[in-house]
């Protein structure tokens, strides 16, 4: 494992003097002193126990700051402190003779820094996690193959697929020109399914996506998972799982788990290499930071989904929640509506479709959407303006 540490240390500054530790006065001097101590230990013959203890102090102090108040109010400096704590902990875990479990702990620690922290030292945590992940792939390849075979479960239940009426079906068109898409669908805000526009993706060709492929690329990576079918339900929650744990717990299970609302490709760039940004996104001319005016392309990669779309003109018939936090969420259970509580819902016109692998659904700005997976399903969502 000395080879592993040589790879990790090669991406770090060569000595303590060149290792940056600069913070604003938002970070107390006592915390900076602990960071400096951890930096000294990184370049000295300190014991693994001492390195781990100091790194954990940094993580505990910054974790408290990250979880005080709302996330938007957390100062970025404390997110940087947390990332440094993750860096020092990874170094402590993998410095001498790390076990397979310690390497996995190192990967999880990097992921926590990528999820909760802020980029430091040219995004060094991303580089470190790729080195550690490659080590896991090499050392456990045979065991991973066994796990794939033994844990993969195929759904045998026939999905409940609604019958799509022609007059309510989202129109389909094959590879429209940029000009025709803009004039016929983008400007008038008309939903449409674009066919044969994602067929060239590596996710459909060189690296066809599947449960097995996801395990091989990202199985040991920690990601946020939404637990529950609707985030308005009382039992809805969020948790952190590795991708392998997520698949083992929810593939074929009755419980609902949802890996969404997360920039997965920033965390795991290997998956990003398997997709391509649709050319039609170049038609946008808005402000990237203005999320209230974004259009959406939903690309189905694996499995199928049933989708309904409602125009913003019919918002009053969809009974949005009154709270500002949930104002863009309907109170209606779409496929089993309570007609006494929501009598106008039945009068709301909609378009619907079953999205199949390779389909690209254009969801215009502010359109209401309801989505139900009909089977194990992977999709990629592009927001653009």
TrEMBL record:
Predominant subcellular localization, coarse grouping: nucleus
Pfam families: ARM_KDM8_N, Cupin_8
Keywords associated with the record: Biological rhythms, Cell cycle, Chromatin regulator, Dioxygenase, Iron, Metal-binding, Nucleus, Oxidoreductase, Transcription, Transcription regulation
GO molecular function terms noted in the UniProt entry: histone H3K36 demethylase activity; metal ion binding
GO biological process: rhythmic process
Localization per Swiss-Prot or TrEMBL: Nucleus
InterPro entries reported in the protein's UniProt record: ARM_KDM8_N (IPR056520), Cupin_8 (IPR041667), JmjC_dom (IPR003347)
Gene3D superfamilies noted in UniProt: Cupin
Domain JmjC: 176-385
GO annotations of cellular component type: nucleus
Top-rank taxon, per record: Eukaryota
Cofactor: Fe(2+)
Name of the molecule in the record: JmjC domain-containing protein 5
Species the sequence originates in: Sphaeramia orbicularis
Gene: kdm8
């Amino acid at each position: 494992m000395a080879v592993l540490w040589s790879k990790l240390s090669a991406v770090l500054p060569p000595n303590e003097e060149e290792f940056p530790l600069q913070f604003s006065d938002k970070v107390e001097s006592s915390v900076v002193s602990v960071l400096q101590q951890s930096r000294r230990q990184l370049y000295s013959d300190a014991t693994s126990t001492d390195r781990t203890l100091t790194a954990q102090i940094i993580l505990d102090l910054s974790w408290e700051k990250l979880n005080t108040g709302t996330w938007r109010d957390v100062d970025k400096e404390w997110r940087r402190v947390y990332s440094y704590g993750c860096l020092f902990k990874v170094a402590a875990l993998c410095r001498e003779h790390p076990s397979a479990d310690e390497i996995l702990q190192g990967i999880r620690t990097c992921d926590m820094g990528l999820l909760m922290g802020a980029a430091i030292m040219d995004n060094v945590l991303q580089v470190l996690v790729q080195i550690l992940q490659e080590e896991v792939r090499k050392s456990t390849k045979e065991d991973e193959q066994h796990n794939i075979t033994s844990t993969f479960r195929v759904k045998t239940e026939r999905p409940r697929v609604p019958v799509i009426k022609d007059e309510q079906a989202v129109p389909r068109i094959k590879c429209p020109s940029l000009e025709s898409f803009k004039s016929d669908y983008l400007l008038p805000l008309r939903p449409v399914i674009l066919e044969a526009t994602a067929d060239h993706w590596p996710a459909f060709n060189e690296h066809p996506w599947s449960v097995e492929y996801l395990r091989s690329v990202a199985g040991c990576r920690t990601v946020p998972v939404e637990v529950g079918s609707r985030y308005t339900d009382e039992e809805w929650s969020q948790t952190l799982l590795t991708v392998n744990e997520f698949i083992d717990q929810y593939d074929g299970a009755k419980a609902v788990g949802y890996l969404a609302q997360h920039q997965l490709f920033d965390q795991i760039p290997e998956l990003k290499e398997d997709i391509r940004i649709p050319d039609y996104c170049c038609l946008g001319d808005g402000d990237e930071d203005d999320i209230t005016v974004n259009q959406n392309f939903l690309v189905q990669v694996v499995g199928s989904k049933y989708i309904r779309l409602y125009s913003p003109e019919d918002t009053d018939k969809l009974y949005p929640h009154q709270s500002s936090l949930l104002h863009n969420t309907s109170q209606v259970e779409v496929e089993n509506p309570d007609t006494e509580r929501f009598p106008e819902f039945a009068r709301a016109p909609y378009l619907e479709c079953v999205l199949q692998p390779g389909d690209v659904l254009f969801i215009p700005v502010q359109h209401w959407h309801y989505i139900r997976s009909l089977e194990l399903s992977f999709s990629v969502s592009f927001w653009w303006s």
